[in-house]
Every structure is written in structure tokens, then in C-alpha cells.
């Protein structure tokens, strides 16, 4: 039997896990070492008034789970993952216990190297196309985590997805709870969470093909419109259960890290997923089996900066035993 993980393993893995993306950079996760296993739990109180709160928490924790797996693998201590290990405690989303020790694979090291550099880029991209081989690698990354990545090809198809996204954004912006939650996570001063206005992207304008979240009131420089023909992709998975959404978070993070390694910038549009009617429209428009879990805009642009994170010790719980 393999020995359990140690507090040092926990700390090193959590340092990577907290670099995962989360809705509004809310970081809705907790970690602990319990009976030699590392557990990740949902912290639903971090998102109070989001209609799709549970989806957002599970997707975010799935992305953090993927980073946990990577960090442990790179340390030569890969994990076996159990999803929802305690039926009596739905807050615990996953438990990782040691598998057979082995050296990390080259792909694992490359993905791990991208963890600290990955960040959303909400600014306009340049016109350079993303090569076919890179798009293929991104689709392969999604499949490796039992997901799929559908690139939306053609101006008509992109326009249809854009209209669904704008309609969803209008629905959300009419909800005072949504606008209050967005304001709560917008940071004008330094903070360990939320989205600083410096990286929130410029405010949306009527000519924009895709909607922007209103993180602050930054205006864009003249001639810095968003790209007229963006590369748009939709990430999804076979179902929409709690386990499916955790899996989608892992697929999302593998895609994002693969993109980072290839020098591709990404921003995420979750509005069409947060509104059930828009999500169903998107599913029908794609004609894919399964459920959409995130819309991505990909391209090349001016490098930005990662959003801040809470210290690892702030999200680690001590096992009461």
C-alpha cells in the first residue's frame, strides 16, 4: 500500500491548485489533508447571488483539481481521484490518494510549467490566425479529459453564437443580483481575489461582436476594437451531472494550459452557460451530443498579467482529527 500524502505534498499541490480560473476570480474552493488523502471541497458562500452558482463552483473546482493532479504528478506522486467520495457530505467534491509512484511524463511537466503563466486575456487580439495544428492540440486536450472542443467556423456560425451570448448577457444585466455580484468582485484597489480593473478588459461598445463583462469602466484606445472575426470555440462534455461539470473543469484547464504553452491567449465567456435558455440554444446550434460548459475566444494579443490569488494557507483546512 502506498503511503499517504504529507502536509508538504498538500501545500505544494495547493500552490498550483489556486492558480486555476474561477468565475469572477471568486476562488470557491477549500483543501485539506484527511487520512493521507487530499480533498477539495466547494465553498459556495464565495458566490452568493449567481444564478449558475453551483455550476460555476464545480467548474472552478474541477480546474483546481486538474492543477492538483499535475502538481502531484510532477512531484513523482501521481494521484488516483475519487469523485464525490462521501455521499453524506456533498461539499467534498474529490479526494486524491497516492497511486503507484513514477516519474512525471514530459506532457505533465509542460502543462505544469504553464500553470503560473496562464491567465485570461480580456483585451482585443491581433489578427494573426491560430494555426490548424494548435487548434488540433487544443481539441485533443479536451478529449484527454473526456470533453470536447468545437471550433465555430464561418462568420454566420460565429454571428449566431455571438447573438446567443449577447442575449444571455442582456438577461443577466437586467438582474440586480447579478450586477451586484459583479460589482462585489470588481477590484479598484489591491485585493487577493476578484478581478482588478487593470485586467478586466475595456468596457463593451455597440460594435463589439462578443459581450464583455463590466469589470470597471476602462475605455479603449482609439483603433483598439475587438477583432471582427474572432476564433470562437465551445467546450462541452457528455452530460451535465455534478461529476460531468467537475470533469468539464478539468478539461477546461487542460485546454487553457495547452493554449498557454502554445502562446495562445484566451478569454472565457460564460454568459451563454449561465442562462439556461441560452445554453439550450447554444447546444442546438452546435448540434453536438452533450452539454456546452464554456465559450472561449482564442487568438494572439498583448501579454497580460494573472489575477491575484489568496495565499494557500487561507484555503487549507486543518483536519479536526
Folded structure, characterized:
The chain has 321 residues and is of the alpha+beta class. It folds into two domains: 7-116, 3-Layer(aba) Sandwich (NADH Oxidase); 132-299, NADH Oxidase (3-Layer(aba) Sandwich), CATH 3.40.109. Helices cover 37% and strands 18% of the residues. It contains nine helices and eleven strands. Strands 3-4-2-1-11 form a five-stranded mixed β-sheet, covered by helices on one side. A hairpin with an 8-residue loop joins strand 3 (79-83) and strand 4. Helix 1 crosses helix 2 (53-74). The radius of gyration is 19 Å and the shape is globular. The two termini are 22 Å apart.
Strand order of the largest sheet: 3-4-2-1-11
The main pleated sheet reads as:
5 strands, mixed
CATH superfamily of the largest domain: NADH Oxidase
- Apparent shape: globular
Structural category is alpha+beta
Which ranges are low-confidence, i.e. pLDDT below 50, for 5 or more consecutive residues?
none
Binned, the helix content reads 25-40%
Keywords:
321 residues, alpha+beta, NADH Oxidase, five-stranded mixed sheet
Overview in brief:
The chain is α+β, with helices and mostly antiparallel strands. Helices cover 37% and strands 18% of the residues.
Blueprint (SSEs and pairs):
Blueprint: H1 7-17, E1 29-34, E2 37-42, H2 53-74, E3 79-83, E4 92-98, H3 106-115, H4 132-144, E5 147-152, H5 155-173, H6 176-184, E6 186-187, E7 195-196, E8 231-237, H7 242-261, E9 265-269, H8 271-274, H9 276-286, E10 291-299, E11 316-317
Parallel strand pairs: 1-11, 6-7
Antiparallel strand pairs: 1-2, 2-4, 3-4, 5-8, 8-10, 9-10
Helix pairs in contact: 1-2, 2-3, 2-7, 3-7, 4-7, 5-9
